[in-house]
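Sorry to interrupt, but I need a hand with the structure work. Could you write out one complete protein record for me, on any chain you like? Just paste the record in under my message, thanks.

. . .
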Amino acid sequence: MSDQLPRLGGLAESEKYERLVERVPGVWWSASGPFAGLHELNVTRVEYFREVFGGFGGKRVLDVGCGGGILAETLAAEGAVVTGIDPSEKSLAEAREHAKRAGLAIDYRRGTAEDLSGAGLEGTFDLVFAVDVLEHVDDLERTIAAIARVLAPGGGLGFLTHNRTIAGFLQLIWEEEYVQHTMPEGFHDFRRFIIPEELTEKLARNGMVLQEMKGVARAGDGSGRRVLTDDLSVTYLGWALRTR
């Protein structure tokens, strides 16, 4: 697989996904490609969010940076009314085709995290998810503000991102991109990784109160299974409530 992966350094974030989908057809749903780990991760994050939000059935949900629809499809299958937004048209095309084959009705729209209103979103959502996307946006402050505007009072935000630490750099960039070549070189930009305190502060400035953060790590049994920990030094997820 490493021979097929394009180098992505120097490209805009949305262009990275366009290039990757173009070079590796079916990459979002491949069992052996660079996004295969997202399917393993999705099991753990969905279990966590299902518990803290009391399930998804009947709730109006927005998946920001939905990519090929990995999370969106799971939410829709559990009864949520799902809208997915992403700037990569090639990723959205793959998402729409896969949802059609799965018999799932998901409203996929092209747009950026910083300008959710530009995608024609109306009203408010009960839940918004921003997983594996906050470290790819061009303006984190605008993204958090945009999420707050479309989230209903009392609604919840579920997130997952990476910490700007030496451990985060070594595991997610050095090891995966330059040693193991399981991810394309240049896929992650370390400068965009987010320290938990930074995220907490930005949430609070936009009327959202952090409820919990948990670290995410690989299980030590070689299965690829993800487990939750108290160590936030690499990848972490959590949730917040909009209070105003």
Summary: The beta strands are 60-64, 81-86, 107-110, 125-131, 151-162, 208-218, 226-229, 235-242.
